Amino acid sequence: MIMTKSYSFETKEDINSFAFARVEGVDASTRDLSQVCGRITQKKADRVVAFLEKAAEGEIPILFARHNKNLGHRRELGGRQGRYPKKAAAAVLKVVKSAIANARVKGFGENDLIVVHAAANTKMIYGRLSAKGRKMKQNFSTARIEIVLKGTPGALKKVDIKKPDPKQEVKTEAKPHVHDTKLEASDTKEKHEHSEIKHDTRSEVKHDAKSEAKQTAKVKHSESNIKQNKQLR
Question: FRET partner for 230 with CA separation of 20 to 30 A, picked from 79, 80, 214, 224?
Answer without folding.
Answer: 214
